[in-house]
Amino acid sequence: MIPLTRRRGLAAGLVAATAVGLTACGSADQQVAGEPEAPAEPVSLTMTVWTANEDQLAMFQQIADAYVTAHPDLVADVSFEAIPFEDYTTSLTTRLAGGNPPDLAWILESYAPEFVQSGALVDVAPTLQAAEGYDYDDLVESSLSLWEQDGGLFAYPFSNSPFAMFVNTDQIEAAGQPSPAELVASESWTYDAAREIATAAAAESGKQGLVVRDFEYQVWENLSTVWEGWDAAPWSEDGTQCTFTDPEMVAAMSWIHEATFVDGALPGPGTTADFFAGDAAMTITQISRASALDDSFAWDLLPLPAGPEGRQNVIGQAGIGVFAQGANPEVAADFLAWFTNPENAEQLATYFPPPRESLLTAEVLGAANPLLSEEQLQAVVVEGIQDAVTKPAHPRFARLQETVRIGLDDLWSAGADVESVLAEVCASIDPILAD
Amino acid sequence: MSTPLATAAPGQRTTRRPGAATRRDWLVGYTMIAPQVLGAVAFVLVPLVTVAWYSLHEWNVLANTFVFAGVDNYDRMLADPGLRDSLMASLYFSIGLVLLNVSLALLLAVLLNQKLPGTTTFRTFFFSPVVASLVAWTIVWSFLLQDDGGINGFLATLGIQGPNWLRGEGTAMLAVIVVQVFKNVGLNMILFLAALQSVPEEIQEAARIDGAGAWRRFRSITLPLISPTILLVSILTIVGSLEVFAQIAVLTGGGPGNSTTVLVYYLYQQAFRFNEFGYASAVSVLLFVIVLVLTLIQWQTRKRWVFDEV
User: What's the CATH superfamily of A39-161+316-384?
Assistant: First the structure.
């Protein structure tokens, strides 16, 4: 009995220790990827991604195989390692902690400042600018800003997917509600109008009204797609001041609270509803989800509605970065230049709207998205990327995400006092923002 | 080890030099325990020392910095309200789990120790969750416990509006405890059953003749005789309760608020979400000390309440 007990006790105390390995000492100095010199023998490159879509992975592999063929002296093979989205950033940092980073990795926009400022990534701008035929100036400047620091570019934003509103026109018609497309045409497509339609549709169908996809009362940053219409933000642009108590945010959160707990327009906590399975009348999500649609109901795709402060385009970005700790950062940066050159970016546009001015046209995107009409693509994607903002990001995003999530849990009940809950949220994140 | 000496052929020396025999025994003995010792050193001792070493450092994996910080991480623990909350959550979870699990396991074992038809079926029924995958078990329960899930659906048929189990401050921890109790109560039940069946029938018989009732026999004979098993089950359940992680990650994610952020989940967040590996190592040292102290206390106090040691 003694050995069993002691061993279990020891095991309990070592939850973290077993998953981590030794790491070399280093510094946070930024590094620049230089010209790749031919290594003694061709190297293997790994890129971590969060898609498990076989068609997408096959396309990546095809682009990579062409690079291997063109540069047999540099690279022996390139592999793409899929990590589930929910655990992606955690798994990535665990690999870094274990001294086993991938050469390249997809990085989610919310964590961009943390990765960019940490010194974990190399500056790829010189490599991309020097690559033959890359046409660096074609990149949309606004899409790069999140990934830039001190004139360097620390990841390439390969995906710029706008948030938009999918609507189930069958459910909306059945509830006798006006067509959202007509509201867009008459410039009266507002959040208030969407809320009325969602309330009526939910009451008629017995299902849900408007679902902010993936929010689920945990991923609160997805609500930014709504509160941007109020010109609200969780913290100041420089990331040092909490702005949850600003009048814009209080108004936006009050609107969300009432829509949920008074009107029943949004599903309450603990209720799951999948728009694409026909469980809801509307959903706010990225257009890349269009592939989940089939013919089981009639649908339409519309831009985000306008709030009291007008309409604000919101995009979800993903970047590809090259790790300084990787074995061959120069070769990896060279591969990134190949992977995202104009020809390959056009291929990737099938799934990921690229940050290239020349490719952001309804024709190019239409060839890749047969489910969407050119009008939809023009209104939602091409125009949606112009002047778009990204979801909230911060150098200490993970800790802020969790702290705000804990604070906002008090908001998600019918009797909550919005203003006082938001004041509590600010009180809890002020020390993190000030740090 | 002495067998070869006893079967030595006639005419040969019947004993070897004691030194050689001892050396050989020593070699054979250590060779046999070597895999276990090496395993314990590699997977217990080395990580234990390493995590203690990490706990004295500021370690940011993104910036790739590993800087000696002395006892800063331990100082920080003293002033960390999140850690205090997680200790309280762990305490709540452990007390709830041990009380519910041990008493329910004992009750089931006593009931299923009767010689009645169908007891084997019931034993199998209660034991089967033990062999089910923990994550699969928890995911199924997460569907059942949703606001519009199976349990509230069932309650609605009885005209009762069930609470939002996993989202209520008061109900979330209770839900996690109950899910964990149902998962493991079968194992403790089997341990208690084995103990109950080893209680000599003649002692019970003698007490019955002396006029002792069922409750008196249970309190004065059965309980003392199975007290070693109660000790074992208590230690295993308490240590197990401090290790709970997957259930929290799947069911509540530590919420609502931080009401179900138990110590291991808190440790996980610090290391793998906030990249504070040094601080997380200090928290894991604290967890190790807590488990060690609890186990030692139970072990040292066993003589006061354990009737007969195994």
Answer: Periplasmic binding protein-like II (3.40.190.10)
